[in-house]
Design a protein that fits this description.
The complex is a heterodimer. Chain A has a domain at 34-126. Chain A is built from five helices and two strands; from the N terminus they run ββααααα. Chain A has helices spanning 34-39, 41-47, 49-61, 69-102, 112-125; strands at 9-15, 30-32. In chain A, 25% of the residues are buried. Chain B folds into two domains: 1-32; 39-84, no CATH class. Chain B has two helices and two strands. Classes of the chains: A mainly alpha, B mainly alpha. At the A-B interface, β1, β2, α1 and α4 of A face α2, β1 and β2 of B. β1 of chain A pairs antiparallel with β2 (78-82) of chain B. Chain B: The chain crosses the membrane at residues 12-31. Chain B: It is a single-pass membrane protein.
């Protein structure tokens, strides 16, 4: 039965700690975890639309990781920029919304009230609207 | 004749056992999730995001809203390995 089917999984995992080659420009990674990213997702879509579209089209041409490194760096920098701005301008509403998401299985429909506060704050201070594509 | 409460005691004990085991399960789920509610209906995307959270903060439910990741994050991704397969499987 299941004890007899061969399994090819090894018990150890491999972590490759060699850094990227020195000729690739160094860009810091986005440090936000899943709940803040989900909270800021529509604003990242509005603020970084051009860079994101560039990256997606580039990936469409060729899915090799080496092909789209430059567009990827731009996307990362834009996301870091937006998260810094969100924290400076609307820090309290942002924190309230993603804490609410974290307590509710990260489902957006359960956290509409903090989301309303965040949307008004972001629209006043940063001019970004939440735009649901296709609606 | 009044209701014999002694006969209902076993039912009370059985119900109490249900409550005790359910509370025990809820407590285990709560404390193993960093004192947050357990997440459900997780698809592959959410599991991958939780693994990313573990690489960023050290725990599957840890959250942080730093803009910039710690330097270890760039190289601490995990690859799950396989042993060589039998030739007969091809």
């Amino acid at each position: 039965m299941s004890t007899k089917t061969p399994s090819n999984l090894a018990s150890n995992a491999f972590v490759d700690s060699t850094p990227l080659p020195a000729d690739i420009p160094k860009v810091d990674e986005v440090g936000a975890t899943s709940a803040p990213l989900k909270s800021a997702s529509f604003f990242i879509g509005a603020y970084c639309k051009d860079y994101n579209d560039d990256f997606m089209l580039c990936k469409n041409e060729n899915n090799d990781p080496k092909h789209c490194l430059k567009e990827g760096r731009k996307v990362t920098r834009c996301a870091i920029d937006l998260i810094t701005k969100l924290r400076e301008n609307c820090g309290k509403e942002f924190e309230a919304h993603w804490q609410c998401l974290e307590n509710n299985n990260q489902e957006l429909y359960k956290c509409r009230q903090p989301e309303r506060g965040l949307n008004t704050c972001v629209f006043e201070k940063l001019g970004l609207k939440k735009n649901i594509p296709g609606a | 004749m009044p209701v014999p409460f002694e006969a209902l005691l076993p039912f009370g004990i059985i119900t109490g056992m249900f409550f005790a085991s359910a509370s025990g399960f809820q407590a285990v789920k709560y404390y193993s999730n960093d004192k947050k509610f357990h997440r459900y209906n997780l698809d592959k995307w959410e599991l991958q995001m939780m693994e990313r959270d573990r690489r960023l903060t050290g725990s599957l439910r840890g959250q942080s809203d730093n803009a910039v990741a710690p330097t270890e994050f760039a190289t601490n991704s995990v690859w799950y390995l396989e042993t060589p397969r039998d030739k007969g499987q091809y």
